[in-house]
Amino acid sequence: MTNMTTMKLVLVAVGFACLLSGVISFGSDTLSMLSFLENGAVSVSSTKPSSLPQPVMVGLTLIEGAASTGAVCLDGTLPGYHLDRGFGSGANSWLVHLEGGGWCNTIRNCVYRKTSRHGSSNYMESEIPFTGILSNKAEENPDFFNWNRVKLRYCDGASFSGDSQDESAQLQFRGQKIWLAAIEELMSKGMQNAEQALLSGCSAGGLASIIHCDEFRNSFPESTKVKCLSDAGFFLDATDVSGGRTLRNLFEGVVQLQEVQKNLPTSCLNKLDPTSCFFPQNMVEHVETPLFILNAAYDSWQVQASLAPPSADPFGYWNDCKSNHANCSSSQIQFLQDFRVQLLNDLKDFSSSSQTGLFINSCFSHCQSERQGTWFSDDSPLLRNTPIAVAVGDWYFDRKDVKAIDCAYPCDNTCHHLVFK
């Protein structure tokens, strides 16, 4: 791997204008940000031309029997997934990747979400490209390319963990049932014979991979090697730039509206309130299955939507800094450095376990396992001269202990920083 010039992902101006004005969000800072980073509603392009081959396109499969168990999207439509079959030595190995896409914490936001692919399978793409950890090419995904690779679509708004409904608004909050229906479906497709399995997820899906990690492990015989990977899912219960708790307020709404507490660890609920137990920093100690945390220390989504959302920065003092970290003042950088310190402190106990893995790079990025450039490419982000894909593979296959933590910004010149214009 070579250290190349930082890649910049550029947000088109019209989309960013919509983001700032709240057109996308219907007044929700978090929903607008998820639209930009995850929904595909705003186009993002790389300034570096790609020479990589075209990714495999994988069709959508709806879970036909899901409705009989109440496992439906927000609008009552069937949930779905994309499966690309494994081959060769990977024919009996399974990777299940949970899609991200933020959350909905109010009736209004959830009703709006029903009109998107994150609330209804009516709006899901008929096929999607499999890149990064889902790629079927050894040169792009060295350890998992020939596994059975699945992307489970996200259409419940509570990280696959709610279980309630709102009849008046015609909303179904059935994330937990969707999770169970999907696992049952995949087992019937051959996953019950898995010799190796990895549950992964990005963003809200990364949080879900933590929530469901032990359930996933318990779905298999003891003889099956099972581990979990959370990418950009370590959301912090942090103070925003106004001194408030933007993300905690959002999570509280999600937990209460969708009755998430039914599916959180009892051992955590015996100590803390349900909202606190929805935060990974309080949840990971209750996960018994080997877990890998992949996170940018300055996670772009958290900077934009949790630390400095418009509601906490009504005069836009943080707009330039959020658009490009190079524009941040010294005091703003210090605020972000304090956020990184909190992240590392919250991971201290987690990292002390021999079975856990860490890759915390000091980048302004988000969801690094899904993007080919950040997962495994000629100029991938590196820690200890190792790209993310190799670090995850080393940990999964027990080739070496992986506890990689970057020095503070701006020391890392291998980052693919997200820059918005």
TrEMBL record:
<dbReference type="GO" id="GO:0071555">
    <property type="term" value="P:cell wall organization"/>
</dbReference>
<keyword id="KW-0134">Cell wall</keyword>
<dbReference type="GO" id="GO:0009505">
    <property type="term" value="C:plant-type cell wall"/>
</dbReference>
<keyword id="KW-0732">Signal</keyword>
<dbReference type="GO" id="GO:0052793">
    <property type="term" value="F:pectin acetylesterase activity"/>
</dbReference>
<feature type="signal peptide">
    <location>
        <begin position="1"/>
        <end position="25"/>
    </location>
</feature>
<comment type="similarity">
    <text>Belongs to the pectinacetylesterase family.</text>
</comment>
<dbReference type="InterPro" id="IPR004963">
    <property type="entry name" value="PAE/NOTUM"/>
</dbReference>
<keyword id="KW-0378">Hydrolase</keyword>
<comment type="function">
    <text>Hydrolyzes acetyl esters in homogalacturonan regions of pectin. In type I primary cell wall, galacturonic acid residues of pectin can be acetylated at the O-2 and O-3 positions. Decreasing the degree of acetylation of pectin gels in vitro alters their physical properties.</text>
</comment>
<keyword id="KW-0964">Secreted</keyword>
<protein>
    <recommendedName>
        <fullName>Pectin acetylesterase</fullName>
        <ecNumber>3.1.1.-</ecNumber>
    </recommendedName>
</protein>
<keyword id="KW-0961">Cell wall biogenesis/degradation</keyword>
<dbReference type="Pfam" id="PF03283">
    <property type="entry name" value="PAE"/>
</dbReference>
